[in-house]
Amino acid sequence: MDDFLARLNDQERQRYQKLLRLRERGINPYPLRVSRTHTAREAIDAFTRGETLQGIQLVGRLVALREMGKLAFAHVQDGTAKIQWMFRKDVVGEEQYAFLLKDLDLGDFVGATGDIMRTKTGEITLHVTRFELLAKTLSPLPEKWHGLKDIETRYRQRYLDLLANESVREVFIKRSKIVTAMRQYLDSHGFLEVETPVLQPLYGGAAAEPFITHHNKLDRDMYLRIADELYLKRLLVGGFERVYEIGKDFRNEGIDFRHNPEFTMMECYQAYGDYTTMMTLVEELYAACALAANGTLQITYQGHAIDLTPPWPRVTMRDLILQHCGVDIEADTDLPALRQRIAALNLHVEPQPTWGKQVDKLFSTFVEPKLIQPTLVIDYPEEISPFAKKKPDNPRFVERFEAYAACMELGNAFTELNDPLDQYARFLAQAEQRRAGDKEAHQVDLDFIQALMHGMPPTGGLGVGVDRMVMLLTDQPSIREVILFPQLRN
């Protein structure tokens, strides 16, 4: 306890002394139970409709208190609204009135019984007949309830951010609406929500480094999943035709305004579909979520007007790279030729170890920053798409698209590879890249090959980053603004 007291600042010590005095007087500052008949919003709405509300019980956090002689007014906030409470000394009694003024602090949780009325100034108010302390607050509210601006404090102590900034609470209310709309859309289109392992003996489904842990009883290393893909496809082998999962993935990568090591993905797979099926799905899914969050498909993101109305333009990766930096990836089809072309055009782009990765770096450097309006970028190099079917007329490319808007990738989709021999060959090629030093290359997953050998129907698959969707639909510049408790550097 001495160590605890040593940590308190002056304000916290004063509140702690109040807490001790309450206990000395036999008052429990943290009672077991509380009664409530209405939320603040319910009381306000009911009174506005003309209902008589007498003897109701409200609860909430004390956020403002002012004394006017034998009369005091408070504002109390619950999870739905803020409402004024009025205390008359001759009604609550002299002892309780003194308790209100001397023993309560802003931030304390209180409960009261009373009648709803309207004051002379027109404010809907609870006329309190009796009240009690529900939870004593030892630390004061941030910046006297006028808002919290410090970025480090906002992220590290998100509870203070939520308390001080109503706009932050609104972002996470919208996030919930977005996820609900996503589920409703998929459910209404015949998809079954499932759960697949987060802790996996072998990771796969994306190009990323995993987090590694150890299972003591089994004495083996395990991995936090980097994607849901390979387990969801196993379910199609097992007979399900439409499945989806909304859950956490983990990638041991850097942290920036678009990346967090722990993030939320929605992956769905539709038997007898292809990447064109997924194009329609992602457009409709985004429209449904935008309407749920904002009631419109015309949004603003960081000053840019964006129209999410389907259909979105479909443009090949090759055409976009040619348009924005002058390189024709169908002409320069090996790494030396591509590097020579980059040098000839005096393009400043980070060198990559393979042709496919160099193409991808050209795209991310010169094209991605230009994709403000929703766009479906189609037909990617096979080298960087180990789970997508090759295009019959040009096998160096695959039936894959990524959805972009606001210069961000928002989704990734394939005509899924279901040929076990081709998939095995792709795994072997990835293994070669891994031996050459690519830590993000896939490992060979023989169990997945065995599953494909039992037969997977023609399939379209889609992955959508939920956090980035929320960023776009709530006009937030950083992924940390849409994750309640983001990972931060020390």
Annotation field: number of helices: 16
Number of domains: 2
> Which CATH architecture of the largest domain would you pick?
2-Layer Sandwich
Name of the CATH class of the largest domain: Alpha Beta
Report a brief summary of the structure.
The chain is an alpha+beta fold. It has helices at about 1-5, 10-25, 40-50, 90, 95-105, 150-155, 160-165, 165-190, 230-235, 275-295, 315-325, 335-345, 355-365, 420-435, 445-455, 465-475; strands spanning about 55-70, 70-75, 80-90, 110-120, 125-135, 190-195, 200, 210-215, 220-225, 240-250, 260-270, 300, 305, 315, 375-380, 390, 395-405, 410-415, 460-465.
Question: How would the blueprint of this fold be written?
Answer:
Blueprint: H1 2-6, H2 10-24, H3 40-48, E1 56-68, E2 71-77, E3 82-88, H4 89-92, H5 94-103, E4 109-118, E5 124-135, H6 151-156, H7 158-164, H8 166-188, E6 192-193, E7 199-200, E8 212-215, E9 220-224, H9 229-237, E10 242-250, E11 262-271, H10 275-294, E12 298-301, E13 304-307, E14 314-316, H11 317-325, H12 335-344, H13 355-367, E15 375-381, E16 390-391, E17 394-405, E18 408-415, H14 420-435, H15 446-453, E19 459-465, H16 466-474
Parallel strand pairs: 3-5, 6-10, 14-15
Antiparallel strand pairs: 1-2, 1-4, 2-3, 4-5, 7-9, 8-9, 10-11, 11-19, 12-13, 15-17, 16-17, 17-18, 18-19
